[in-house]
Amino acid sequence: MDIQTQTLCYHCGDLCLTENLKQDEKNFCCSGCLNVYSILSNGGLNNYYKLNLHPGDSQDKVIGKFGYLDNQEIAAKLIHYADAQKITVTFYIPSIHCSSCIWLLEHLNTIDSAIQENRVDFLKKQVYIQFNPQQTSLKNIAELLTNIGYEPLISLQDVVNKDVAKKDNLIPKIAVAGFCFGNAMLLSFPAYFGLSASDAQFGKVFSLLSLLFCLPSVFYSGWDYFKRAYQSLKQKNLNIDFPLALGIAVLLIRTLSDFTFNTGDGFADSLTGLVFFLLIGKFVQQKTYHHLSFERDYRSFFPVAVDVFEEDGSTKPVALEKLKEGDRILVKSLEIIPADAILLKGDALIDFSFVTGESQAIEKVLGEIIYAGGRQTAGSLELEVVRLVSQSYLTGLWNNEAFQKINTNKTKTFVTQVSHYFSLVLLVLATSTLLFWLPQNWQTGLNAFTAILIIACPCALALSTPFTMGAALSIFDKNKFYLKNTDVVEEMAAVDTIVFDKTGTVTHSEGNNIAFKGLLNLKEKEIIYSVCKNSIHPLSRKICDFLSPIKTLKVQGYQEHLGTGISAFCDDKKILIGNANLVMDGGLLITNAPQVHVSIDDNYIGYFEIRQQLRPGLKNTLNQLNNTYRTFLISGDKPQNSTDLNNCFKNNSDLYFNQSPQNKLDFIDYQQQQDKKVLMLGDGLNDAGALKKSNVGIAVTDNINNFTPGSDAILDGQSLTLLPNFLSFAKSTVKIIHLSFCIAVCYNIVGISFALQGKLSPLIAAILMPVSTVTIIAFTSFATHFSAKKHKLKL
Amino acid sequence: MTIIFFLIACSVILALIFLGAFFWAHNTGQNKDLYTPSVRILFDDELLGEEEEKRKPQI
Question: Which InterPro entries does the annotation name (chain B) (predicted)?
């Protein structure tokens, strides 16, 4: 056997299986990559390959068709602006990943001069294009992008981030708060250092100016705190915003009265500082993943348009929501069935793995109903729609109540729980101090009353959660675990039950375990490899991967039989590779795993068995989890390779098979009724209900850009083995918040002891607040990083 | 010492100008994409070697 040196594709860096695809002395793995290279080199865009080594994405995949973009109605949904001279549009392109991508996509006009302007937003993976509609069309642009290897993802649910200004406008608010804080602080210094009697006139002006700086700080930057405090009052549950708003208001009133009655220097610097720090805390807590969406539903999984047969037999693309009952539709190979439909024509071999969790493609006969969401894996199909998209079997799940109402059984966060009592204690303390002083000296009483509200204003408390959580989120992020928001961390810490989905979660969606049952000599291996290499069918590719690297022989009379297999002549022998029907005229053992049978010259020589492979390290992970958590497996699949899985879970009865999406949801519901906090890991649409219902729903995916159902967090499949670490890290994070709360309370007690005596000077407030804030920030970030290290997470 | 009134006025106005500049930058979308420009600025017009430059087709 001759040993081949490994050649890597010049475009994408994949291993080249053939030497035939060459241009300019460069090797390519597939015609797609070669094609991209020739387009780019003809356009003078070779710089693309200079910026990074193998910058392209493998083109070895099926490419979508964009015929529907000529349909005005559909196109109008994507276009931002259109007139006779220009059209602007933003595409979401998942394959943007390096600087070469940016360079190439911003030099598109060297290929197509109709493109007037284009700009890439790397983090959002979006490209903004402005083009001349008289010279080209939206469809051509989409096809150009696809041809150079950047296929835009267009789906029903808008994947493009609209550039609408965020509602809360946090950044301008921080800018204003920072401006006011800086100026007010400068103006307060003279008062603290003492002004001589001759300079008293300055003091008055400084106070006035500081007071003016307070106004935008309170009424623009800090206004949200009042709004939320009012809401919380209406709901009769005092949240953290209530004492904060109270503190801000009292600070402003004290500053005003000090100025008007000339009773002191006011608290302008504390007030502006408080607002500034609070907003910074909010900013740290916000973490946006531009390229991820946690709210996706079935619409982003389905295609935008379907080919519908006209009266005369031709097809026309129609927007999915315009699809009517009785329409006859064409579904090509590897497309998704968009609506529940009856099979009229064609060999249906549908892969429902995403909908039901069943990993094996299912054959359907003419006249049978095919549920929406399956992916056709054989040839083209003709179908008649029987139910609208919105009413189909799969989408019906979204009508479940779990999707209708906001989940109320989520646990309250620590801060919400604490701040309710905190506010009550604060109010009682302040009023009783006032009542205590009133008979003796009403002025001291009022002083003490306001001083308590000022000093107890839970700035440090309000900051402890955002800073801890912000640090925790970025640590999770570095370990490829993306959380929707900070509340999820606390939910995770409370979890006691973990439910796994099987297909795609516990098992690899890609890496299958393949084995040949029978005996193969080298010659036969070469023959099978050479024949399978011609096919793009996923099973053929797996066989090729399994057998390679090996010599390629010449193949003649190659024929692909849709849905059954391939036949060919190679080395003067007749080869049949395919399912039992093709190779040995049907009727043989039905087993769990997919099989590919082989016969050479009508001699049956054996079959390839393709088993789903458990993720590496999974067993270890589950053993760790079993110590502290109840673990379950719930799968839409038939029971198979159970021995491997049984070893991972505590009891066989913890494994549930043949579960419908509704069953999964009910299972979670049942657990929750037993007062369990459930964490669910899933990947497909079939898990969407359960993910939504559970306390923490984690979508597991091998490619972050792929579709993931709506969830609380998205986990990269590689990091699944880190799950025990994530969970215990979440627990320590909550502990850190508790500790920093204790620190904050200590500062408050010190402050209140001053306040009770009515002795709180602006200087003490001005020192105490920043010191407590800095302590909290330093403690939380240090402790979070320390505990991440302890839990062996990447920093 | 009354000069201090003038100085304070100057400093506040200067700070307001900076605040205004920040708002202008924010509203024109300069904060929207903080990553891509950092890559874009590093692209030289020509990365091709000299010899390949000769082969470069006319556009």
Answer: Cyt_oxidase_maturation_cbb3
